């Protein structure tokens, strides 16, 4: 395929795209279709005749191809043109697991995007909204959400909560105070571990259920730091009754200042010296 002409390495486009995609045997690019009108490039990938593949479930010894299924994946753009990979994905008959679809090296099972495209989406999502990412890459927002959902779930499963015992609960608002959320944090590790979609007492139960679903015993929490919001305290009494609650000093000072101001305001009617001393 390669020939050297006056020191210049020349290769055909199939080899070029096979190399650029990082494919290795038995996979290689077998056809390229480019349509300027449709604004897209299609790269057809195939495996060599007689290729064998390992079972994806048990990675037992390699088996011959049982049958194949045509699939398409959105890949990174080629210049300004949308690029798609197409391939017939083989299924193998494993002696232990039965018929299984093999995993292709450029995409995770079940995804309509290549791993590199998903990586681009994750990187963009750190900097902009999902709607913004969808517009930049020319995809529907719900497909972007599905990619994020997969990687967020995977990252959450990898978090080790075995040493987690000090919980911080904090409310915050979105949309200029119209929507309230609650964050639950591992205060020692300085990381958020759950976001509740309200500040009602039920969020504590939802958090506890999520923790159990991740295989963590809520009973290992012994200290909770939160503000004096009654619904949280109510939720803690019912679902994390073993914990000691610590109020943060900002909220204690806030309550104290309010109480002093109330007394000053009542007494200034009798005692003129207290007039105009609010900030004093
Ligand atoms: Zn198997």
Description:
The protein has 280 residues and is α+β, with helices and mostly antiparallel strands. The chain has helices at 13-20, 115-127, 130-137, 141-158, 202-213, 230-239, 249-267, and strands at residues 3-5, 8-10, 27-35, 40-47, 52-53, 63-78, 81-94, 98-101, 166-174, 179-186, 191-196, 223-226, 244-247. The strands form three sheets. Strands 3, 4, 5, 6, 7 and 8 form a six-stranded mixed sheet that branches. The protein has a five-stranded mixed sheet with strand order 11-10-9-12-13. A two-stranded antiparallel sheet has the order 1-2. Strand 7 and strand 8 (98-101) form a beta hairpin. Helix 5 packs across helix 6. It is elongated, with a radius of gyration of 30 Å. The protein binds zinc ion (ZN). Zinc ion binds next to loops. Zinc ion (ZN) is lined by residues 55, 57-58, 60, 94, 96-97.
Using the alpha-carbon principal axes, give the shape: elongated
Number of helices: 7
Span between N and C termini?
Answer: 86 Å
Total strands: 13
Beta-strand share of residues: 25-35%
**Poorly predicted parts:** none
Bound molecules: zinc ion
- Nearest-angstrom radius of gyration? 30 Å
The major beta sheet can be summarized as: 6 strands, mixed
- Average pLDDT taken over every residue: 92
Q: Tell me roughly what share of residues is in helical segments.
A: 25-40%
Helix-strand string: EEHEEEEEEHHHEEEHEHEH
Q: Which class of secondary structure composition applies to the elements?
A: alpha+beta
């Amino acid at each position: 395929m390669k020939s050297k002409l006056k020191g210049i390495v020349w290769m055909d486009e199939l080899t070029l795209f096979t190399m650029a995609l990082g494919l290795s045997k038995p996979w290689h690019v077998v056809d390229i279709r480019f349509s300027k009108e449709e604004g897209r490039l299609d790269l057809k990938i195939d495996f060599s005749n007689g290729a064998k593949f390992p079972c994806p479930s048990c990675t037992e010894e390699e088996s011959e191809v049982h049958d194949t299924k045509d699939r398409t994946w959105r890949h990174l753009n080629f210049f300004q043109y949308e690029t798609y990979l197409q391939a017939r994905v083989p299924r193998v008959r494993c002696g232990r697991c039965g018929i299984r679809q093999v995993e292709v090296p450029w995409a995770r099972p079940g995804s309509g995007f290549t791993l590199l495209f998903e990586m681009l989406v994750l990187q963009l999502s750190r900097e902009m909204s999902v709607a913004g990412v969808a517009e930049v890459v020319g995809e529907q927002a719900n497909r972007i959400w599905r990619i994020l959902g997969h990687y967020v779930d995977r990252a959450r499963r990898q978090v080790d909560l075995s040493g987690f015992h000090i919980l911080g609960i904090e409310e915050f608002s979105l949309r200029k105070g119209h929507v309230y959320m609650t964050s639950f944090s591992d205060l020692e590790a300085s990381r958020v571990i759950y976001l509740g979609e309200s500040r009602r007492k039920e969020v504590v139960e939802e958090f506890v259920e999520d923790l159990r679903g991740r295989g963590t015993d809520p009973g290992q929490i012994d200290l909770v730091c939160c503000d004096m919001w009654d619904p949280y305290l109510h939720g803690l009494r019912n679902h994390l009754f073993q914990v000691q609650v610590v109020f943060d000093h900002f909220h204690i000072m806030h309550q104290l200042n309010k109480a002093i101001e109330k007394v000053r305001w009542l007494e200034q009617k009798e005692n003129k010296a207290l007039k105009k001393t609010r900030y004093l």
